Amino acid sequence: MKKPREWISYESILELKVSRSEILRTFENRLNQSTRLISQLEDWLEGTLPNYKQALGKVTEILGKNVTKEGADETIQEKLSYSLDYLKENESHFWEQAEKNLKWADFEDMDTEDYIDPLSAKFEEWEESYKKIEKVHGIIWAQITMNPDKFKPKQK
């Protein structure tokens, strides 16, 4: 026996709310991680980084060439700055979407089979940016740990 359409819509919106709760929890955890990673990166990049050109080459592979200006003199900090701005922009779009209330009436006549939650899409956009920054963090960390004697942190 087939369930009435109202029951399917109500069940779908409950599943969507549970899914959104999981997305929000994951987002907040990753947001906290990103804050820590960014803080470490900023501290590290204020110092003298060993094998800077090698690190710049690897960071360029991840973040791209000339993201902030033309020419070959773009620094890791400039590339990272652009990526951090993009991460913040995606965070803002995520929170805008998260603030929208889900109303059962909006879903009554919708085909939920092919529905993609806009919050999930915004999270994926943010996460893609976050993963790039995470990779850059790994590169810089590797440069420092492979050559700890050459790394000179900025004097405070």
What can you tell me about this protein's structure?
The longest helix is centred in the N-terminal third of the chain and has 42 residues, at 5-46. This protein is an all-alpha fold and 156 residues long. It starts with a helix and ends in a 10-residue tail after the last helix. It has one domain (5-146). The chain is built from five helices and no strands.
Descriptive tags:
156 residues, single chain, 0% strand, 5 helices, mainly alpha, elongated
Question: Strands, helices and their partners?
Answer:
Blueprint: H1 5-46, H2 52-63, H3 76-98, H4 104-107, H5 118-146
Helix pairs in contact: 1-3, 1-5, 2-3, 2-5, 3-5
Put the structure in a nutshell.
By secondary structure, the chain is mainly alpha-helical. The protein has 5 helices and no strands. The protein is 71% helix and 0% strand.
Order of helices and strands: HHHHH
* Largest beta-sheet details: none
The whole-number mean of residue pLDDT values reads 83
Q: How many whole angstroms does the radius of gyration measure?
A: 21 Å
- Tally the structural domains: 1
Number of E strands: 0
What structural class do helix, strand and pairing data support?
mainly alpha
Distance between the terminal alpha carbons, to the nearest Å? 72 Å
Q: Can you count the helices?
A: 5
Shape: elongated
Query: In terms of per-residue confidence, which ranges show pLDDT below 50 for 5 or more consecutive residues?
Result: none
Strand content: under 5%
**Helical coverage, percent range:** over 70%
